[in-house]
Amino acid sequence: MTTRRTTRRTTAAAAATLALAAGLSGCSGFTGGGDDGADGALTFTTWASESEQDSFEKLVAQFESEHDGATVDLKVVPYDQMFSNIDAQLSTGDAPDVFRVDYGNLGVYSSQGQLLDLTGQIDDEDSFQPAMLEAVSYDGAPYGVPHQTDVSALLVNTELLAAAGITDLPTSQADAWTWDEFGEVATKLRASLPADQYPFGVNWQQGGTPRWLSWLFQAGGALLADDGTTSEIDSPEAAEALGFTQSFFEQGWVAPSSSVKSTTFADTEFSEQTTAMAFVGSFLVPELADTDFDWTAVPMPVDERGATDLGGNALVATADTDQGELATEFLNFMASADAMTEFCAATNELPTRTDIDASSIDFAVRPDVMPVFVDQATTIEPSDVKQLTSPYLAEITVAMQDQLEAAFTQGQSVDDTLSALDEAVGQATD
Predict the structure, then answer these.
(1) Would the CATH topology of 41-149+311-356 be identical to that of 152-309+387-429?
(2) Domain 41-149+311-356 classified CATH 3.40.190.10?
(3) Which CATH number fits domain 152-309+387-429: 3.30.70.1320, 3.40.190.10, 1.10.3720.10, 3.40.630.30?
(4) R_g (Cα) of the chain, nearest Å
(5) Which of 105, 218, 238, 316 could form a disulfide with 307 if both were Cys (CB 3.0 to 4.6 A apart)?
(6) For residue range 27-65, what is the model confidence (pLDDT) as tens digits?
């Protein structure tokens, strides 16, 4: 769910050492030794796109100017190195005071006691969307601040759709295509397009495999029961979702090489006009802004309900930081309404606070399409978040990738796929 190519591709983070939480209290000036022995010095490690890095640098400078004696050492690393570095640093006690983590991986760290418990320490906690608070929580306690989110919607090449006679496009959840209507659109496109072009691409490649769960949720299904451990994947709803997504390949609606283990992402196919439509996260809108064809965004299709993926990231502090007080102050600053609005506007990402009207944000790139993403975000339910942030999801995802690949490209039956997934979920949660 979260890169310009790699910045949001979910990876499985390995659990490391168990640590004790540092004490927290509010303050206006800071003393005490950090990891490097400096008073009021924080280390902050993140990955970032160009616009994200620029925003982080500006906000860090603002925080330092508003907090006498505080310094923040911002370190930007490639996403594909981020969590292997964090894991190694946690195991040696040399982790940064603060780091960025996608919601899908946060549970791995919080469940192992590696993050600072922020119970009672988040400013204006009631101002955050309940689903996003769920995303940073483990066993009812928050272990980070939900810094931003991004969700997938459907981008459409209006020229290619018009050539196929498709001009009536949905604009909101109220008139989103049903699965049947989406299938009709794909069928028209398949008949209109040449053999080397495809109706659409789905962004479930590699680390994005959990995005398949959006279709499961749309069908009214679930991966895990409310207890967070019992598998619910072998169900009629899951059979419907798997059968429908399997038909993408059977009907020639997607490229045969675009399955979950593909190395070519949906946004690349769309920008190269290999596909007429693509499921894409809002964070990729800036990368697609300069294409030489007209495109817009429409909502994801709906079945029993609307649903999308949980993209975005939290900011967390490590449990054994010597700067717990300052780290907490920094997290609250970064997740404040003003800072969050500034960050989201610059990066085409979405806020996690209810006191920010996302529809009024002056997005830097293609503000005309952002209302669709803002509306799409309302389809995320707390129960979805609980499953997408499960500490077991990383292990389950490995099995999901293998089984979906077999179903999509090797003809494995729906029943056999769901049975194998059910067994894998049971093994992961046992």
Answers:
(1) yes
(2) yes
(3) 3.40.190.10
(4) 21
(5) 218
(6) 333 333 334 434 689 999 999 988 999 999 999 999 999
Contact at 8 Å (CB) between 424 and 41? no
| Whether this model's pTM surpasses 0.90 | no
15: its two tokens: 């659990």
Beta bridge partners of 42: 72
Strands of 127-219, DSSP E: 137-138, 141-142, 145-148, 152-157, 198-201
Q: Which two tokens stand for residue 272?
A: 């190269």
Q: What is the model's pLDDT at position 206?
A: 84
Rounded average pLDDT over 356-379: 95
Give CA separation, 110 vs 21, 77, 118, 141, 318, in Å. 11, 22, 11, 9, 10
Structure tokens at 152: 């997938």
Instruction: Round to whole Å and give the CA distance between 427 and 430.
Output: 5
The per-residue DSSP string of 221-257 comes to --SB-TTSSSB--SSHHHHHHHHHHHHHHHTTSS-TT
Domain ranges of the chain: 41-149+311-356, 152-309+387-429
pLDDT in tens, 85-129: 999 999 999 999 999 999 988 999 999 999 999 999 999 999 999
Average pLDDT, the chain: 90
Share of the chain above pLDDT 90, in %: 85
Q: The tokens of 202 are what?
A: 């789905």
Give phi and psi for 49, each to the nearest 5: -75, 175
* Per-residue pLDDT, 131: 86
Alpha carbon distance 162, 124 (integer Å) = 47
> C-alpha angle 297/354/100, rounded to 5°?
75
